[in-house]
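Recap for those who missed Tuesday's class. We walked through two folding examples back to back. For each one, the amino acid string is listed first and its predicted structure tokens come directly after. Nothing is annotated here on purpose, so try labeling regions yourself before you check the end of the notes.
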Amino acid sequence: MQYNIKQKVMLNIILFGPPGSGKGTQSENLIEKYGLNHISTGDILRAEIKNETELGKEAKGYIDAGKLVPDETVINMLAKKVDEGLGNNAKGFIFDGFPRTIPQAEALDDMMETKNLEIDCLLALEVGKEELVKRILNRGKTSGRSDDTDEGIIQQRVEEYENKTAPIADYYGKQGKLKTIKGEGSIEDTFDLLCDAIKQGVSSN
């Protein structure tokens, strides 16, 4: 599906944050404030498989074989979700959990360009490792997740995030779209910083 008018009134952002950074809470706040469509690759993948769509069947085949779902299949799912949002006059999109690699970022940019859209900014929540561990251990008292109660596993999760996302930050940084936000304040203070970063990101594009 092609869209010939540049959708400048739309806001399209990527939200990154390590485990315990408050990304889930801030994502909900941003969706509510800006009326964005939430695009989570995990949610979309599960929905496509559950509904037994062609893309879902394709993805399930890879998963059942113990393989990763190819980027092309994931991008096609995202494109379908974006088309649905555009059909419902979406005000913009917030991408959660994608991209995680440079090829995925390039594919996302290409897909958005075919719809005359673009990513306005990547918002990266920054929280010190010590604070992250403390937050997750505290969350583990009620979350019921075993990986929220083991400090060693938490450290690994944080390091894995840092290793995987650093190249993505650099990729969007070169485009002038990277906005880092200190996430160690209150939920309200962090949200205000996110909104300020979005204003700067949109005005500079």
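Example two. Treat it independently of the first, because the proteins are unrelated.
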Amino acid sequence: MRTSGVLLHISSLPSPGGIGSLGREAYAFADFLQASGFHIWQVLPVGPTGYGESPYQSSSVFAGNPLLISCQALRDEGLLSYSDDEEFTPKDPEKVDFDEVRKNKMMLLRRCFRESSAKVSHQLDRFRADQPWVLDYALFTALKEHFGGIMFSAWPDRDVIYRKPEALRKYREQLAEEIDFHIFCQFIFRHQWMALKEYCNQRNILLFGDMPIYVAEDSADTWTQPEIFQLNSERIPKRVAGVPPDYFSATGQLWGNPLYRWRRLRRRHYDWWVSRMKNMAQLFDMVRIDHFVGFANYYSVKHGLPDARKGKWVIGPGSDLFRVLQREVPDIRIIAEDLGCVNDRVKKLLKWCGYPGMKVLTFGFDGDETNPHFPANYQQNTVAYTGTHDNSTLLGWAETASDHAMDLARKTLHFEKKEDAPDSFIRCLFEGPCDTVIIPMQDILHLDDHARMNLPGTIGGNWLWRMKPDSLSLDLTMKYNKLIAETNRR
């Protein structure tokens, strides 16, 4: 089946409150996708954002981001009372002001908790039973607030760092109300998410999620299960993740995430990974596994080094992990993010799994026509993108590309003006052989790099872009309905 979809993170929707949410605007976007003929809606990771507001540095691989909750939907359900002027209104509607959004959203969610937690007590009890991770996540979040937001490995009470039973009991009693509040937020997030998923699925729209391979150093996951990560006795990573120096970076990329103890996970039949993937299968119909390369072989850097130049490659779990995941979680479609250092071991693992890999069209015009991202080299079992959240938009690429890259793109895709590049790139993918094509919403709207989501290796100024409220026009719907029909996609 030839399919097509759009990449737009929830935070980029033009919802009230200064950030995109799971309210009316999300449903309106699903309607736009259906009317235009698209079959897939891809989002970025939906967990609580971490350092630099990155969704790839979350405090939990199981939790949802409370900032994405729609207060308007809570009001519509009779669970929250507030006037419109109590909800934050940003000065710039195209950017998220995370500090102001968080302050305002948490104020309203705490009010909702006071007003309505008793009304949903039975559902909350069922949620606790169905989602066993939520108790530890809520305690971790309450403890971080209690200790002023510092990393858990630096908490002044060492007993609770090491999860001594008496310390856990003490703080569960002392922070009981705060713990209940964070459980309530997770219940509301899950309730709103599953309602949106049902709405999308009823309209033949698949929700496509994104799962980072690694977890944040300061997370509920590392606190609750330190034994499956390469941590020392002080809960500090021994070695961390990254990628070596390459064409894009002379010093490599030092991500800083703790690495896994794969042998220990294997002895446990990868139980944590099975639980993680089952959670993803509840939330999504499809999932992109970020940095799939790391399951074949991962780059390991000693903790404390200033950059990634002195790392080493280590063999990963390979097919042993995916044999278990395919058996235990069969009902989710997996896409492998196989960009980066793709050696023979990675290729063999991808072939064994049978998962589609990725191609990025804006990568295809560096060098010559042997470039694997050059459109003539695309294959059927592939998900093709014009660009990802880490790249320039198409228009941004056209404005900054080298003369060689632009000349090759013009010759291959038959366009002249830079402003015509987006439509030419998009049509190329739609007409091409790949089973699935995904277009970032910024490229559909012909936006330049002011709408870029992330510039890797930088902190601050990322993950901010929001779509204007009037972006989903009838002309846009008709344009893509026609393109999808002409190229025999859905």
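Answers for example two:
The radius of gyration is 23 Å.
The CA atoms of residues 228 and 268 lie 10 Å apart.
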